Amino acid sequence: MTHETWIAQLDAYLDGELETGSMQELDQHLRECSACTAESLRRLQWKRTIHTAGQRYVADSSLRKRVQKSISPRRVSSTWWRWPAFGALAAVLLVAAGFWTVQHKTRVVRQNQIVSEMADLHVSTLASPTPVDVVSSDRHTVKPWFEGKIPFSFNLPELQGSPFELVGGRVSYLEQSPGAELIFRVRKHLISVFIFQDRAVRAEFSGSEAMDARSFHLENWTQGELHYFVIGDASPEDLRALKDLLRNAK
Q1: Binning pLDDT at 50, 70 and 90, where does residue 10 land?
Q2: Domain contains 109
Q3: Is residue 7 part of a domain?
Q4: What is the CATH number of the domain that holds 250?
Q5: 3-class state of residue 66 by DSSP
Q6: pLDDT for residue 163 is more than 50
């Protein structure tokens, strides 16, 4: 492909709209072409700026209460009681089903936004000339570096005897909430591990889930008051193995 052809695919790549094969080809190209990597990072920063600006005008929780109040049953004439009993029950069930549907769709949209955000942060790290702020394979160096920079502590696993290597870490943000981003290497693949307070993620993810984010695999789980995301183009088996090491870290 020509350089212009790669550039033309960047927007679809960052939006997760390319087919899997094309995503993998562009992933590989970004690792080899500094010009396309810089352009990808520039467009990603635009996207994140626009996303952040859009959050400024998100409706507050009082809006839901006003909407619920406006559609709640009101006092009506005595003719209501002439309706068949099943009519009242059907109306209640219809409202409940509608409310559940809205809640479910809202949760799915929010979950997709967070997964996309994790992919954006991971791509940004891969594209950055300085992917980590603390460079060390020693967990006793990396963990203390985060003290005072994030509002929580976490444990890192002992990697001796495993195929994983700790590269370093940096502070990352999920909608203004600071967290830790740790970079691990397994063979030739880089894996990002994001750790945020669970309240920053809220209840959009239930339990432990594995999913795909563009051409990356993603594992996530809650442990204590923290929420973990493990994302990369390594095999799902490698991500699960790293997940197990993190869950058992002391």
Answers
A1: confident
A2: yes
A3: yes
A4: 3.30.200.100
A5: helix
A6: yes
Q: How many residues does the chain have?
A: 250
* Distance from C-alpha of 174 to C-alpha of 48, rounded to nearest angstrom: 11
The distance of Cα 5 from the centroid of its chain, to the nearest Å, equals 29
Residue 248 pLDDT exceeds 70: yes
Q: What is the count of structural domains for the chain? A: 2
- Would you say the C-alpha torsion 195, 200, 205, 211 has a positive or negative sign? negative
- Reported as half-sphere exposure (CB side, CA atoms, 13 A), residue 78 has a value of 0
pTM of the model: 0.61
Question: Given the structure tokens 């520039």, which residue do they identify?
Answer: 42
- DSSP line for 93-157: HHHHHHHHHHHHHHHHHHHHHHHHHHHHHHHHHHH-SS--SEE-S-HHHHHHHTBTTBSS-----
Q: Are residues 114 and 165 in the same domain?
A: yes
Helix, strand, or coil here: 86?
A: helix
Q: Give the residue numbers spanning the domain of 172.
A: 86-250
Digit-coded pLDDT (tens) for 111-151? 778 888 888 899 888 888 888 999 999 999 999 999 999 99
Query: Token digits for 62?
Result: 């009082």
Contacts made by residues 49-55, CB under 8 angstroms, sequence distance 24+ = 51/117, 52/175, 55/175
| CA 139 and chain centroid, separation | 24
Residues 6+ apart with CB under 8 A from 148: none
Would you state the structure tokens that stand for residue 61, as one six-digit string?
């929780």
CA distance 229 to 174: 12
Are 100 and 153 contained in the same domain? yes
15 and 131 co-located in one domain: no
